Amino acid sequence: MKIGVISDLHIDREHIEQRRYEEILIGETKKHKLDILLIAGDVASHYEITTRFLEKISEETQINVLFVPGNHDYWLKAEEALSTKDVYEHYKQLPQSILESPFIIDDEWAIVGHSGWYDYTYADARFSDEKLARGKFYGGTWQDKLKINWELHDRELSKIFADKVKTDLEKVGDRKIILMTHVVTHRRYAVPMPHRLFDYFNAFIGTSDFDDIYQQYPIKYSIMGHVHFRYQFIQNSVTYICACLGYEREWRTDDIYTEIQNTLQIFNI
Ligand SMILES: [Fe+2]
Questions:
Q1: Ligand 1 mean position to 189 CA, how many Å?
Q2: Do the Cβ atoms of 193 and 199 come closer than 8 Å?
Q3: With 0-12 CB in 10 A as exposed, 13-18 as middle and 19+ as buried, what is 248?
Q4: Exposure check for the chain: N or C terminus, fewer CB within 10 A?
């Protein structure tokens, strides 16, 4: 079985037509004859755009496209009547989403995942909780603070989402696990410190609430996004994969086709 991984497509951010992202991803999925495509969040900065994209990719590839929302996928504009919780509920019922609904591949394998949330533990210890919770540093504001409102402290939310993953892991018995989150769950994906800005902003990158999950469950692959890195490594027989397309200014070429091709990671189970 061939599984493709990609994240952080941000299809509504650049001047590039959204249809280009679709065409290329559909083309690559077919070319590699993927059985499952995993998208680890940040398709777009609005749920309607994200939803349309997921539906299109599913329709045109006819394979299982599985998704966890990234922080951007939860963003709302000020004038919208929906709450962040409404957007969460919307994603929960979307067939592509694996929020609170693990995907069983066969007797041997299952895919479990969630957005996850950041819990500030990756920041430098010199910042107080109050300073981190404001999300403001050096004139910059962490945009989730303005565009998302869970009505909960980020630390609390991180725990709740990690607990949802534990509940789902219990549902799939002793199958080997492909875990997918949006935020990072391994410190190797934090921005190296000391760093002028990320000593602070690493607070919003990852969580430590998954640490015991790796001890307690047979996680074989751990997929994540959010940091716009493309990097994988193996530790304690877990393969960690981060396959972010990221923003055009972060690309090595100016060609979207080359970038998507280079970003998509494929593994076999
Ligand atoms: Fe992103």
A1: 13
A2: yes
A3: middle
A4: N
Determine the pLDDT at residue 136: 97
What is d(CA 72, CA 137) in angstroms, rounded to the nearest whole number? 20
pLDDT at 97: 98
The alpha carbon of 157 and the centre of ligand 1 are apart by a number of angstroms equal to: 19
User: pTM (2 decimals)?
Assistant: 0.98
Which pLDDT does position 36 carry in this prediction?
98
Instruction: Report which residue type is found at 147.
Output: K
Q: Which residues contact 88 (CB under 8 A, 6 or more apart)?
A: 69, 74, 99
Cα 245 to ligand 1 centre (Å): 8
Instruction: Give me 114's structure tokens.
Output: 């969630």
Domains of the chain, earliest start first = 2-268 (3.60.21.10)
Distance (Å) from CA 95 to ligand 1 centroid: 22
